[in-house]
Amino acid sequence: MAGGDGMDMEFVESLRMSKRKEYMKLSELSDLTEQLAQATERRDEVSAKMLVAMRQQPLLELHEIEETIREGVLHQEEEDAIRLSALMDGEEVSGPLLEEEQALREMCERNRRVMERIASVDRRVSLGLGGKRSFYNNFR
């Protein structure tokens, strides 16, 4: 609804809190990925294998958080679900943003920046380890 009229702002706030949890897990994953990059640059196979394994838990937790968010949004009124999805994806929405909506959008943008940083470091690690066989070479 325009400007979130009638939208459940408690739900919007709960989404922001879920996105905050997601941010914490992304930060953990970013740190582990950076450590993995350093280990691969040192050619430290033992540390690299350990760090790859350590990334599994935050990845699983991120997946669970995303599923919870998706389920919650899908249970909203259609118009609200569309608006919330657009807000979280950084797309334009009609009408002014309410404070809760702006806070949600900002949290999602922060998460997106961390994900981009993780992807960049992950790409560097993959290309360093896999060379021509790297996953990322399929997209050139």
Give short descriptive properties of this protein.
140 residues, mainly alpha
Catalogue the unreliable spans: none
Total domain modules: 1
* String of helices and strands: HHHH
Helix content: over 70%
Output mean pLDDT.
91
Helix segment tally = 4
Main sheet record: none
Structural class: mainly alpha
Strand fraction:
under 5%
Shape: elongated
Q: How far from one another are the termini? A: 41 Å
Q: What is the total tally of β strands?
A: 0
Instruction: Round the Cα radius of gyration to an integer and report it.
Output: 18 Å
Question: Can you tell me about this structure?
Answer:
The chain is an all-alpha fold. It has one domain (6-139). Helix content is 76%, strand content 0%. The protein is built from four helices and no strands. The protein has helices spanning 9-41, 45-74, 78-89, 99-130. The termini are far apart.
State the gist of this model.
The chain is built from four helices and no strands.
Helix and strand arrangement:
Blueprint: H1 9-41, H2 45-74, H3 78-89, H4 99-130
